[in-house]
Amino acid sequence: MNSARDPRIAIVGAGLGGLTCARVLQQHGRSVTVFEREASADARPQGGTLDMHPDTGQAALRAAGLLDRFHALARPEGDEWRVLDFATAAPLAHQGPSADGPSADGPSADGGRPEIDRGQLRALLLDSLTEGTVRWDRAVGGVTPLADGTFRLLFDDGTAEDFDLVVGADGAWSRVRPALSHAAPRYTGVTFVETGFDHCDTRHPDLARLVGNGSMLAKGAGMSLVAQRNSNDHIRAYVALRTPEDWHVAAGIDLGDRRAVRTHLLRMFDGWDESLRYLLSNSDSGFVNRSLFVLPAPHTWEHVPGVTLLGDAAHLMPPVGLGANLAMLDGSDLAHALVAETGVGDAVRAYESVMLPRSIEAATGSAQGLDHLVPATAP
Ligand SMILES: Cc1cc2nc3c(=O)[nH]c(=O)nc-3n(C[C@H](O)[C@H](O)[C@H](O)COP(=O)(O)OP(=O)(O)OC[C@H]3O[C@@H](n4cnc5c(N)ncnc54)[C@H](O)[C@@H]3O)c2cc1C
Predict the structure, then answer these.
(1) Does ligand 1 come within 6 angstroms of the Cβ of 293?
(2) Phi and psi for 105 in degrees, rounded to 5?
(3) DSSP state of 75
């Protein structure tokens, strides 16, 4: 075991939470290694836009010394929400700034939640780390305790390394979590089917106007359409369905068959305004099926010095705008606890005493948020 001042720290997962933790640790002169199963930073597209909340995501970025660089990249005008009537596309509600100036509702009450593409945010964090911090192509298969209180990381390639602290920042299907808890994610009953539009101002101008600078939502019974503007003139759309997870199997649809998915969805959204059905009929990319899973809430565990969890690995919840923000705050809080406390065990205990109650509260709110986003009955 290394000294209490210089513990060997492994973070499993180079997502937003793990990278924030690594960055804050390095800012305080601490050593850390991040193990990531993907082969490189651009091994896969990183997904849509995220709004950074002042008290969570932005607070973590401030702790990481990256808030100014975040603001240089972010889109404050993206902090806009429109709710449209599904049958007419008439506006029902509006929140945040618009091209025509502030709305009647005024800007967000908490001072603004600028949007940033997830890929840009991850690159910002990656670039801030000392070279070689992230070890790519290092998939972790499990964690096992050793007799001296340290932990052994077991890699899928058959190798192993020992650490004083293992941080599971490896997302929904964490391989570190079983060292602390038997909890497993369960299907929420909601699936997002994702698609996208390129060069929207020139190729899809009516859609661009409908969506505006931020996000748009239209709701029916058990089905919603969400569209959000990303950077680079791109609009990402989610078809949100309350449905069994195997809906496409039951419908006999090959998800890779764009035309078949399109035809099926258009049939489901019969009666919706044509400007909204455009989201189904005219996308430039195919359809990606994203079944939404959550961990049981409350999800807690008996404190074990030497291993802990952050972000989705600890508290996977419905994607209603909190998960990335909380993962980053977790990362920053854990790093600060490790700097402030003399022993790893005390630091983990201090961190979990704040993170666990916070995540229980957020999980309850997010479950309600999902019901609001995709109501079971007609709104
Ligand atoms: C459709 C959708 C929209 C969302 N929108 C928002 C939003 O607007 N705002 C918001 O705050 N949140 C949003 N979220 C939630 C957010 O994406 C997650 O909460 C957030 O990414 C969690 O970050 P994380 O660092 O904990 O995990 P992740 O981002 O999942 O990162 C985990 C990392 O660990 C790696 N990994 C996994 N297993 C292993 C292994 N065995 N060995 C090594 N590495 C491994 C993965 O490759 C990945 O890089 C959304 C989620 C979805 C699905």
Answers:
(1) no
(2) -75, -15
(3) B
pLDDT band per the 50, 70, 90 thresholds, residue 378? confident
pLDDT-derived band at 101 (thresholds 50, 70, 90) equals very low
Spatial separation of the C-alpha atoms in residues 146 and 235, rounded to whole Å: 49
Q: Is the pLDDT of residue 108 over 50?
A: no
Cα separation, 215 vs 229, in Å, equals 6
Q: How many CB atoms lie within 10 A of CB 176?
A: 26
135 lines ligand 1 (CB under 6 A): no
Domain covering 188-293, topology:
D-Amino Acid Oxidase; Chain A, domain 2 (3.30.9)
| pLDDT exceeds cutoff 80 at 269 | yes
Residue 186's Cβ-side half-sphere holds a number of Cα atoms within 13 Å equal to 9
Q: What is the DSSP letter of 346?
A: H
pLDDT value at residue 107:
40
pLDDT for position 1: 52
Domain spanning 9-75+114-184+296-373: CATH superfamily: FAD/NAD(P)-binding domain (3.50.50.60)
58 touches 67 (CB < 8 A): yes
pLDDT at 111 over 90: no
pTM of the predicted structure, to 2 decimals: 0.94
Check if 192 has its Cβ closer than 6 Å to any atom of ligand 1: yes
Q: For residues 335 and 216, what is the distance between their CA atoms, to the nearest angstrom? A: 36
Q: Does ligand 1 come within 6 angstroms of the Cβ of 290?
A: yes
| Residue 141 CB contacts under 8 Å (≥ 6 apart), including other chains | 154, 155, 156, 175
Helix residue spans in 3-107 (DSSP H): 16-27, 57-63, 67-73
Return the residue whose CA atom lies nearest to atom 21 of ligand 1: 324
